[in-house]
């Protein structure tokens, strides 16, 4: 997992206890101050976000709209961090007040009706962690595939918050064990959430993304192809009122070997088109500070 200025057990536990004992309004104000401080101090992240947004919005990295959007991303991420620690500590009747609606639940129900499970695939846009809370509240057997945090203390805290709401955590690593756990959960007609826009363990494949060759993880596509589970794009976005709405899109039609010489590559391309559309519609909620391509990489 990438390191950032708050990536320390002291920071994580400070946010955790603040959200437990301080008023919500004060916590969010402090989150805003922290986000603006990181915005001011982290030139590397500002530049990375500017480069990525320039591709998505087809503008120069120095364009005023790009700069304004970068600042907004930091503010949104500050709100997300506070809510990530705040929401799991609330009782179910209070948690629902943080969410507006879940659109497209019938898509998930139809997929589970076939008995082969469902994969909810998202990108680093919106508040992807809250999808698990929404699905868990709806009563579905839910598991999330996650990369371990950089320290055991922060990893234990984050997984404690996830598991406290009935979410099963499958930690992604280089062994085949995590893949077997995913397939096993799908065979039990469960729901698995995966992030599909960043190759974090170095086993991805190049796909065209905003006009550049970017490596995407193959896990979500391969799991869907092997299990027969529906591959459903899913996103959780923050609205103007600060509440979160989740929406599911129709499953991505998966190409097979009889349709394509490279079905995995074709399916990754189809997934990339969905991510591009959602990110362009909500650029201020695309938290991707690492440049998605290296300078000098051919288009």
Describe what this molecule looks like in 3D.
The structure is a single chain. It is built from 11 helices and 9 strands. 47% of the residues lie in helices and 17% in strands. It has a 7-stranded mixed beta sheet with strand order 1-9-8-2-5-3-4, with helices on both faces. By secondary structure, the protein is an alpha/beta fold. The mean pLDDT is 88.
- Any idea what the radius of gyration is? 19 Å
- Give me the number of helical elements: 11
The helix/strand order is HHHHHEHEHEHEHEEEHEEH
Q: Work out the strand percent.
A: 15-25%
Roughly what percent helix? 40-55%
The description of the largest β-sheet is:
7 strands, mixed
Unreliable spans are none
Sequence of strands across the biggest β-sheet: 1-9-8-2-5-3-4
Features:
about 300 residues, alpha/beta, seven-stranded mixed β-sheet
Question: Secondary structure elements and their pairing?
Answer:
Layout: H1 9-21, H2 24-41, H3 43-57, H4 64-86, H5 92-95, E1 99-103, H6 105-112, E2 118-122, H7 130-137, E3 142-147, H8 152-163, E4 168-172, H9 177-187, E5 191-195, E6 205-209, E7 212-216, H10 219-227, E8 230-238, E9 244-248, H11 263-281
Parallel strand pairs: 1-9, 2-5, 2-8, 3-4, 3-5
Antiparallel strand pairs: 6-7, 8-9
Helix pairs in contact: 1-4, 2-4, 3-4, 9-10
Offer a concise description of the structure:
This protein is an alpha/beta fold and 299 residues long. Helices cover 47% and strands 17% of the residues. A hairpin with a 5-residue loop joins strand 8 (230-238) and strand 9.
């Amino acid at each position: 997992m990438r390191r950032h200025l708050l990536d320390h057990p002291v920071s994580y536990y400070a946010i955790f206890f603040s959200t437990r004992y301080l008023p919500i309004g004060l916590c969010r104000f402090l989150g805003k101050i922290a986000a603006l401080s990181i915005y001011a101090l982290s030139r590397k992240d500002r530049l990375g976000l500017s480069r990525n947004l320039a591709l998505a919005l087809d503008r120069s990295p120095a364009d005023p709209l790009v700069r304004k959007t970068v600042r907004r991303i930091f503010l949104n991420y500050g709100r997300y961090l506070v809510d990530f620690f705040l929401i799991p500590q609330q009782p179910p009747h209070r948690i629902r007040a943080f969410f507006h609606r879940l659109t497209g639940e019938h898509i998930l129900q139809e997929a589970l009706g076939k008995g082969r499970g469902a994969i909810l695939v998202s990108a680093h846009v919106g508040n992807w962690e809250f999808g698990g809370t929404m699905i868990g509240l709806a009563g579905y057997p839910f598991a999330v595939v996650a990369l371990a945090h950089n320290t055991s203390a922060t990893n234990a805290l984050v997984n404690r918050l996830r598991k406290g709401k009935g979410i099963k955590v499958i930690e992604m690593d280089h062994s085949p064990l995590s893949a077997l756990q995913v397939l096993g959960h799908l065979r039990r007609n469960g729901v698995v959430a995966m992030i599909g826009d960043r190759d974090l363990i170095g086993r991805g494949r190049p796909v065209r993304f905003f006009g550049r060759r970017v490596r995407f993880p193959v896990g979500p596509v391969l799991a869907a192809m092997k299990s027969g589970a529906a591959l459903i794009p899913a996103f959780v976005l923050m609205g103007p009122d600060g509440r979160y709405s989740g929406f599911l899109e129709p499953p991505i039609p998966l190409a097979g070997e009889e349709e394509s010489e490279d079905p995995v590559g074709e399916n990754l391309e189809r997934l990339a088109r969905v991510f591009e559309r959602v990110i362009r519609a909500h650029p201020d909620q695309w938290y991707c500070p690492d440049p998605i391509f290296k300078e000098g990489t051919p288009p």
